[in-house]
Prior knowledge:
With 189 residues, this protein is of the alpha/beta class. The chain has a single domain (2-188), classed as 3-Layer(aba) Sandwich (Rossmann fold), CATH 3.40.50. It contains seven helices and five strands. Strands 1-2-3-4-5 form a five-stranded parallel beta sheet, sandwiched between helices. Helix 2 (41-56) crosses helix 3.
Amino acid sequence: MLVHGLWDTPRLFRRLIQKLEQQNRPVLAPHLPHRWGAVPLQELAGLLDREIQSRWGQDEIDILGFSMGGVISRLWLQDWRGASRCHRFISVGSPQRGTITAQWVPHWAFAGIADMKRGSALLDRLNGDVSCLQRVECKSLFCRWDLTVVPGWQAVLPLGTVEEVPVITHRQLMRHPRALAQVVQTIEA
């Protein structure tokens, strides 16, 4: 399962999907319409749950979330009982501890973006109790110089392993050949 972020579509994963399909891995990358960040992340996690149920039912899955998609995936894991059926969760450049770039965004106008503020009620709640994630193999990949998730080294889960990706921009986390090779290697591990 591949979950895109803000201002993205599943097309973002085109190269990654090609690499995974060469290995005969079943892949689903649904479109989650976020309306420029206005849709609350909890609502997007509900849409993700419907997509997963439709494609895989109760089968165990691996999930990779990029940027905001990593927080949506985490909501599915923690609030929609996804952790009970997920083997591995890979968070790539996701503001799991919030991002300064969302600090001044009003919740009434852009709830999805505001959910990603540092110190938001949503992220504080998710980070406050990660016990259900103990059974999931969690991995965080981040870009130190990320200008979307600021500071970049805060784009990590509060548990699991952490790896820095040697790129210089947020978008390169899913587009640069070195980053893609590192993501594929993480998926294959």
